[in-house]
Amino acid sequence: MTAIAVTIAGSDSGGGAGIQADLKTFSALGVYGASVITALTAQNTIGVQGIHDVPPDFVAQQIDSVFSDLAVDAVKIGMLSRPAIIEAVAEGLARHGAMQVVLDPVMVAASGDRLLAPEAVDALRRILLPKALLVTPNLPEAAALLDEPLACDERAMCRQAERILSLGSRAVLVKGGHGTGPESIDILVDVHGMQRFAAPRINTRNTHGTGCTLSSAITAGLARGLPLHEAVTAGKSFISAALGASDQLRIGRGHGPVHHFHAHWS
């Protein structure tokens, strides 16, 4: 059987993040990708110039179209900017019995532009977090979800991961890419305990779509049948390689994308 994953997220007109990054990642990892678009963004490597939300009923219609026909193995959720859209997605997932759900709580673009309305944070916590197998916040997103200061060390990251876990998801991966030091540390917490993932910090400005790419790489692993911890390990290896090869690309004048097809392009 062909492994199938669906991304429920916003579109990035610049091609480096969102739906575009997710589908590129699925393809690079041998998974067929379907999509449900929740928002259109006018966006490039410099910033976000505009956001146009898709009506919630049409988001629901896309979900029903995909799940009624395709045997979806795993779901990645990205940008959901409004409470009504969050509700439509949660209801759609419940309607179709989606189980392997990776929630990337996209709040701010790499450029610093806000992608999630403040009133939507509570809806994300209450409605969608309990449906997730894995939640993948970066340091600012974890702090925003908990209304706490930014975690400044691994101990604080672990504590915030445990607090997010208590909101209902089955596992939490707090990503340390916004931290400092020679290594980028991610902390995975689930009912079995804590696992630490360390990778050399890569000196590049081409970081656009990093979070989207990692969460969709983990989703691809789940779709291929990997257990969660193995899917996270494989996803970490993929994003490290994509970041390491990103300077081979010359895209735009700002934060360029990671190299999703580093293993395929010469």
* Total strands: 9
How many domains, as an integer?
1
CATH third-level topology: UDP-N-acetylmuramoyl-L-alanine:D-glutamate ligase
Low-confidence parts, pLDDT < 50 over ≥5 residues?
Answer: none
Which structural class is indicated by helix and strand composition?
alpha/beta
Name of the top-level CATH class: Alpha Beta
| Beta-strand content estimate | 15-25%
Mean pLDDT metric: 93
Distance between the termini: 30 Å
The helical percent reads: 25-40%
Number of alpha- plus pi-helical segments: 8
Second rung of CATH, namely the architecture: 3-Layer(aba) Sandwich
Sheet with the most strands?
Answer: 6 strands, mixed
**SSE ordering:** EHEEHEHEHEHHEEEHH
| Spatial arrangement of strands, main beta sheet | 3-2-1-4-5-6
CATH superfamily heading: Ribokinase
What overall geometry do the principal axes of the alpha carbons give?
globular
> Taking Cα atoms only, what radius of gyration do you get, to the nearest Å?
17 Å
What tags apply to this protein structure?
266 residues, alpha/beta, UDP-N-acetylmuramoyl-L-alanine:D-glutamate ligase, six-stranded mixed beta sheet, 9 strands
